[in-house]
């Protein structure tokens, strides 16, 4: 059966950058069938909801989903459950993608643009695997109420055995294709759920971690080490909360937000959801100047992790590096290429 890639361009610069990823997919993997659908504000405008059942069904049946970005000031007044962002959350939940992959790497040509000293980022290549559907963001009970005359707000940090095991499995698998080192991060010194996380990751490693070296680090120490000596890390495995914070921190080590892709993976056989780390960037939408690299590198991750086209993924990654080596730069990288011209440079390097 033919593989399908469902494009959900979304809002703001989403359609601009996804259009360029589409051109590259058509050139690089012509055998993959490409479909398009609406999500976010675009879907709300057309159907009154940020994600229709029909689009979710199409996403479930696809081999992979490549999303642009959702949201923008136009939909600020819309009710909470109809907001563009609610469409993205419904999509993540509907696909049950529990492992969020955020690479932090620096293309050689962009080392100078990094926020860190050259020797700290040259050759930097980290993959953060963040648990996406559990932990303190979802645990019950939670709320704001009054007890014994005291107003209080509270959340519950809870993880179950299967939740930790399945995300640890993803981290070990990814590490095997890299430097085979996983650093698991928690606060087992002060949190029961953190202690449980450490125990469960250790058990999962004994069973599923063959060939992978596992170490543990407290989340605060990891935040510090990421700035002090980021190259010590290969794969960082973290829960939802710490993964959220550490992946943003790691991302900013490397330069422009316009360069960073992400993947969200579920159980084997479930389509992965791929999207740039950046948002809809309303301030530059419609001008044709957005950097398409994050979307194009999200396509690269889709080729690698959902479509089984590792060779095409390697080729695409190398082409992005080559285009940058040749000086191709959008405005955010200090150049003056348009979105389309940046993609042209990558196509030429392909
Ligand atoms: P969201 O809430 O959707 O994350 P945001 O405003 O927090 O939105 P972005 O939409 O990512 O974040 O924009 C942050 C800044 O980065 C903006 O100034 C935007 O113009 C810039 N930016 C984001 N993506 C790109 C891109 N692909 N190319 C160039 N600049 C970008
Ligand atoms: Mg943001």
TrEMBL record:
Top-level taxon: Bacteria
Keyword annotations: Amino-acid biosynthesis, Branched-chain amino acid biosynthesis, Cytoplasm, Leucine biosynthesis, Magnesium, Manganese, Metal-binding, NAD, Oxidoreductase
InterPro entries reported for this sequence: IsoCit/isopropylmalate_DH_CS, IsoPropMal-DH-like_dom, Isopropylmalate_DH
Cofactor: Mn(2+); Mg(2+)
UniProt record similarity statement: Belongs to the isocitrate and isopropylmalate dehydrogenases family. LeuB type 1 subfamily.
Residue intervals of the Isopropylmalate dehydrogenase-like domain: 4-346
Description of how the protein assembles with itself and partners: Homodimer.
Chief location bin: cytoplasm
Lineage of the organism: Bacteria, Pseudomonadati, Pseudomonadota, Alphaproteobacteria, Hyphomonadales
Swiss-Prot/TrEMBL GO biological process terms: L-leucine biosynthetic process
NCBIfam families: leuB
Cellular component aspect of the GO annotation: cytosol
GO molecular function: 3-isopropylmalate dehydrogenase activity; magnesium ion binding; NAD binding
Catalytic activity, reaction form: (2R,3S)-3-isopropylmalate + NAD(+) = 4-methyl-2-oxopentanoate + CO2 + NADH
Gene behind the chain: leuB
Descriptive protein name: 3-isopropylmalate dehydrogenase
Localization, UniProt: Cytoplasm
Details of cofactor binding: Binds 1 Mg(2+) or Mn(2+) ion per subunit.
Biochemical pathway: Amino-acid biosynthesis; L-leucine biosynthesis; L-leucine from 3-methyl-2-oxobutanoate: step 3/4
Enzyme Commission number(s) from the entry: 1.1.1.85
Primary role: Catalyzes the oxidation of 3-carboxy-2-hydroxy-4-methylpentanoate (3-isopropylmalate) to 3-carboxy-4-methyl-2-oxopentanoate. The product decarboxylates to 4-methyl-2 oxopentanoate.
Record flagged with keyword Aminoacyl-tRNA synthetase: no
Species this protein is from: Hyphomonas polymorpha PS728
A Pfam entry, by short name: Iso_dh
Binding site for NAD(+): 72-85, 279-291
